[in-house]
Amino acid sequence: MLLGAAGSARARAASAEKGSGAPIRTTSPAYPLARPYLRFVMKSARRNGVDPRLILGVIQVESNFDAAARSRSGARGLMQLMPGTASRFGARNPGDPRQNVEAGARYLRYLLDLFGGDVERALAGYNAGEMAVFNAGGHPLSPSVREFVRDVLAASRQF
User: Fold this and answer.
1) Active-site hit among 62, 102, 120, 147
2) Element (H, E) at 108
């Protein structure tokens, strides 16, 4: 398997999607940073059937809730979307936090569907691209991708 047993990843995916209506834990250390974005994170999560905690985890790891974040590679916004990905999933202005989160949530939904609900593979695809996950042939990807997956899952659990 890519990053763990398929059964455990699928179980986490199922529980994450079932729990998408669960309240966000306000005791999370990142909650004050997340608070300005919670309303539209929750709406995007509901619309796309993605656990809002997963979206918040991606945002925390990708940009630490900095809507103006830009990477050297050209990724932008809260969810650090590359221009092509942003456009592909409906963000005309990836610097706009609402559009960025909505496109990021759509992308996560797409990846979750593509990888049969396997959250770890979906996150690996989010970080490295879906083709990199397919090309890995079930073997672990680079240490940085594994670290990204681990960090997002840990950040998600805080919420």
Assistant:
1) 62
2) helix 97-114
1 in a structural domain: no
The CATH number that applies at residue 125 is 1.10.530.10
Give catalytic status of residue 62 as yes or no: yes
Pair of tokens at residue 93: 């202005």
Residues facing residue 70 across a β-bridge: 76
Task: Provide the pLDDT for residue 25.
Answer: 83
Closest CA to 8 of 91, 106, 119: 119
Confidence of residue 23 (pLDDT cuts 50, 70, 90): confident
Torsion of CA 157, 105, 70, 86, to 10 degrees: 160
Residue span of the structural domain in which 139 resides: 6-21+30-158
Q: What would the pLDDT profile of 42-68 be if each residue is shown by its tens digit?
A: 999 999 999 999 999 999 999 999 999
